[in-house]
């Protein structure tokens, strides 16, 4: 799993440079991408740089980058449909088991929802078959307990 985080609207960033970043994101097809719009931080040297980018432009660039990444993520996750993967159970609720794969960090990455499977406890490892995906999460069925 390859991940990275990007800043949009850093002082001096031109539209052409931002378009270059989008082209990189499209070509690299990273598994996980985070993004935030630049904001001044007390005492940071970047505050004095010329070429401040307007807040609405910074936010719009962030939105565009994340929309592109959502499309890429949806394609990458859809490629997992039909595969069996091992997951770690985080919780069991009224709908089933909520888990994550070895590629997914807690709280910031997607989840694996094992629908209608209740015979698990947090910390269990399961083998599941991916049935569906969206831009963030996988939807799976239970196959077996993992050793």
Question: How would you sum up this structure in a few lines?
Answer:
Helices cover 26% and strands 33% of the residues.
Question: Can you walk through the features of this model?
Answer:
- This protein has 147 residues and is α/β, with parallel strands linked by helices.
- The protein has two domains: 3-78, Transcription Regulator spoIIAA, CATH 3.30.750.200; 84-145, Nucleic acid-binding proteins (OB fold (Dihydrolipoamide Acetyltransferase, E2P), Beta Barrel).
- It has helices at residues 15-28, 55-78, and strands spanning 3-8, 32-37, 84-93, 96-101, 112-115, 125-133, 138-145.
- The protein has a five-stranded mixed barrel. Strands 1-2 form a two-stranded parallel sheet.
- α1 (15-28) runs parallel beside α2 (55-78).
- The model has no long low-confidence stretch (mean pLDDT 94).
| Count of discrete alpha- or pi-helical segments spanning 4 or more residues | 2
- Overall geometry: elongated
What characterizes the major β-sheet?
A: 5 strands, mixed, barrel
Output the strand order for the largest sheet: 3-4-5-7-6
The separation of the N and C termini measures 23 Å
* Radius of gyration, CA atoms, in whole angstroms: 19 Å
Number of strands: 7
What ranges have pLDDT less than 50 throughout 5 or more consecutive residues?
Answer: none
Domain count:
2
Oligomer: single chain
What do the pLDDT scores average to? 94
Write the CATH fold name of the largest domain. Transcription Regulator spoIIAA
Along the chain, the helix and strand elements come as EHEHEEEEE
**Helix content range:** 25-40%
